[in-house]
Design brief:
With 169 residues, this protein is an alpha+beta fold. It contains two helices and six strands.
Protein backbone atom coordinates (compact mmCIF):
# COMPACT_ATOMS: atom_id res chain seq x y z
CA UNK A 1 0.00 0.00 0.00
CA UNK A 2 1.40 3.36 -1.02
CA UNK A 3 1.49 6.17 1.51
CA UNK A 4 -0.61 9.14 0.42
CA UNK A 5 2.47 11.41 0.31
CA UNK A 6 4.87 8.93 -1.30
CA UNK A 7 4.28 10.05 -4.89
CA UNK A 8 4.52 13.71 -3.91
CA UNK A 9 7.84 13.07 -2.18
CA UNK A 10 9.24 10.94 -5.02
CA UNK A 11 8.43 13.62 -7.60
CA UNK A 12 9.35 16.66 -5.53
CA UNK A 13 11.83 19.17 -6.93
CA UNK A 14 13.75 20.98 -4.25
CA UNK A 15 15.65 24.19 -4.75
CA UNK A 16 18.87 24.98 -2.93
CA UNK A 17 19.40 23.09 0.33
CA UNK A 18 17.00 20.49 1.70
CA UNK A 19 16.87 19.80 5.44
CA UNK A 20 15.29 16.68 6.89
CA UNK A 21 14.77 14.85 10.15
CA UNK A 22 14.57 17.68 12.66
CA UNK A 23 15.37 16.83 16.26
CA UNK A 24 15.56 19.08 19.33
CA UNK A 25 19.31 19.36 18.58
CA UNK A 26 18.65 20.48 14.97
CA UNK A 27 18.48 18.85 11.55
CA UNK A 28 20.40 15.57 11.29
CA UNK A 29 20.30 15.26 7.47
CA UNK A 30 20.64 17.85 4.71
CA UNK A 31 21.53 17.96 1.01
CA UNK A 32 22.23 20.59 -1.60
CA UNK A 33 24.59 22.14 -4.12
CA UNK A 34 26.27 24.38 -1.54
CA UNK A 35 27.74 23.20 1.75
CA UNK A 36 26.42 25.33 4.62
CA UNK A 37 28.83 28.08 5.64
CA UNK A 38 30.58 27.84 8.99
CA UNK A 39 28.48 29.35 11.78
CA UNK A 40 25.18 28.44 10.04
CA UNK A 41 22.45 27.62 12.53
CA UNK A 42 19.93 24.83 12.91
CA UNK A 43 22.10 21.79 12.10
CA UNK A 44 22.59 19.19 14.84
CA UNK A 45 26.11 18.17 15.83
CA UNK A 46 26.88 15.17 13.60
CA UNK A 47 24.42 16.28 10.89
CA UNK A 48 25.27 14.62 7.57
CA UNK A 49 25.26 16.94 4.54
CA UNK A 50 25.20 15.38 1.05
CA UNK A 51 26.89 17.67 -1.47
CA UNK A 52 24.99 17.30 -4.75
CA UNK A 53 26.62 19.73 -7.18
CA UNK A 54 28.63 16.95 -8.83
CA UNK A 55 31.67 19.10 -9.55
CA UNK A 56 33.70 18.99 -6.35
CA UNK A 57 35.37 15.91 -4.93
CA UNK A 58 33.79 16.37 -1.50
CA UNK A 59 30.54 14.42 -1.36
CA UNK A 60 29.68 13.85 2.31
CA UNK A 61 30.18 16.41 5.06
CA UNK A 62 29.52 16.20 8.79
CA UNK A 63 28.78 19.03 11.23
CA UNK A 64 31.59 19.11 13.78
CA UNK A 65 30.09 22.27 15.29
CA UNK A 66 26.94 22.94 17.27
CA UNK A 67 23.31 23.76 16.49
CA UNK A 68 24.11 27.44 17.08
CA UNK A 69 27.31 27.45 14.99
CA UNK A 70 27.84 24.70 12.41
CA UNK A 71 31.24 23.62 11.11
CA UNK A 72 30.83 21.21 8.18
CA UNK A 73 33.97 19.24 7.31
CA UNK A 74 34.55 16.63 4.63
CA UNK A 75 33.69 13.20 5.98
CA UNK A 76 34.02 11.13 2.83
CA UNK A 77 34.78 12.12 -0.71
CA UNK A 78 35.23 10.55 -4.11
CA UNK A 79 38.97 10.50 -3.47
CA UNK A 80 38.86 9.09 0.07
CA UNK A 81 37.78 9.60 3.65
CA UNK A 82 39.10 12.01 6.26
CA UNK A 83 39.06 10.78 9.83
CA UNK A 84 39.18 13.16 12.76
CA UNK A 85 41.78 12.80 15.53
CA UNK A 86 41.73 10.62 17.51
CA UNK A 87 40.42 7.82 15.30
CA UNK A 88 41.10 4.12 15.02
CA UNK A 89 40.14 1.40 12.60
CA UNK A 90 38.26 -1.43 14.28
CA UNK A 91 37.94 -4.71 12.43
CA UNK A 92 35.96 -7.89 12.98
CA UNK A 93 37.69 -11.04 14.18
CA UNK A 94 35.80 -13.70 12.23
CA UNK A 95 37.14 -13.47 8.67
CA UNK A 96 39.65 -10.61 8.67
CA UNK A 97 40.17 -7.46 6.63
CA UNK A 98 42.27 -6.82 3.52
CA UNK A 99 43.81 -3.65 2.19
CA UNK A 100 43.76 -4.27 -1.53
CA UNK A 101 42.08 -7.37 -2.94
CA UNK A 102 44.45 -7.92 -5.89
CA UNK A 103 48.23 -7.66 -6.29
CA UNK A 104 47.91 -5.02 -9.02
CA UNK A 105 45.97 -2.57 -6.84
CA UNK A 106 48.14 0.32 -5.71
CA UNK A 107 48.58 1.21 -2.02
CA UNK A 108 50.73 3.92 -0.43
CA UNK A 109 51.32 5.26 3.07
CA UNK A 110 52.34 8.68 4.43
CA UNK A 111 51.84 10.55 1.15
CA UNK A 112 54.03 8.19 -0.89
CA UNK A 113 52.91 7.43 -4.45
CA UNK A 114 50.84 4.22 -4.30
CA UNK A 115 52.56 1.16 -5.79
CA UNK A 116 51.47 -2.36 -6.72
CA UNK A 117 52.58 -5.31 -4.61
CA UNK A 118 56.33 -5.79 -5.15
CA UNK A 119 57.41 -9.10 -6.64
CA UNK A 120 60.70 -10.54 -7.76
CA UNK A 121 63.28 -13.25 -7.35
CA UNK A 122 64.98 -11.48 -4.43
CA UNK A 123 61.96 -12.21 -2.23
CA UNK A 124 62.47 -15.97 -2.02
CA UNK A 125 62.95 -17.52 1.41
CA UNK A 126 66.57 -18.05 2.40
CA UNK A 127 68.13 -21.32 3.45
CA UNK A 128 69.36 -21.32 7.03
CA UNK A 129 72.63 -22.84 8.18
CA UNK A 130 74.32 -23.26 11.52
CA UNK A 131 77.44 -21.32 12.33
CA UNK A 132 80.56 -23.45 12.42
CA UNK A 133 84.13 -22.83 13.40
CA UNK A 134 85.01 -22.39 9.72
CA UNK A 135 81.98 -20.19 8.92
CA UNK A 136 81.36 -18.24 12.13
CA UNK A 137 78.78 -15.93 10.53
CA UNK A 138 76.44 -18.83 9.75
CA UNK A 139 76.72 -18.62 5.97
CA UNK A 140 77.37 -21.78 4.01
CA UNK A 141 78.99 -19.72 1.24
CA UNK A 142 79.72 -16.22 0.00
CA UNK A 143 76.74 -16.62 -2.37
CA UNK A 144 74.40 -17.19 0.58
CA UNK A 145 75.70 -14.04 2.29
CA UNK A 146 75.14 -12.09 -0.95
CA UNK A 147 71.59 -13.51 -1.22
CA UNK A 148 70.80 -12.33 2.30
CA UNK A 149 72.04 -8.82 1.51
CA UNK A 150 70.01 -8.78 -1.73
CA UNK A 151 66.88 -9.94 0.10
CA UNK A 152 67.24 -7.32 2.84
CA UNK A 153 67.73 -4.61 0.20
CA UNK A 154 64.65 -5.82 -1.74
CA UNK A 155 62.55 -5.70 1.45
CA UNK A 156 63.89 -2.22 2.23
CA UNK A 157 63.09 -0.98 -1.28
CA UNK A 158 59.53 -2.35 -1.10
CA UNK A 159 58.94 -0.75 2.32
CA UNK A 160 60.37 2.61 1.19
CA UNK A 161 58.37 2.59 -2.06
CA UNK A 162 55.02 2.13 -0.31
CA UNK A 163 55.89 4.49 2.54
CA UNK A 164 56.10 2.06 5.45
CA UNK A 165 59.66 3.27 6.18
CA UNK A 166 61.36 6.47 5.08
CA UNK A 167 64.64 5.02 3.85
CA UNK A 168 67.70 7.24 3.95
CA UNK A 169 67.65 10.38 6.05
Amino acid sequence: MQHRNQTDLEQANFTSTVKAMKTPEGYILAAGATVPADASTGYAPGCLFIHTDGSALGVFYVNDGTKASSNFNTFMSVDGAVMADPSAFAFGTLVGTKFGSATNQKIGFWNKTPVVQPSGADQDALATTSATQSSPWGFASQAQADDIAATVNAIRTALVNCGIIKGSA
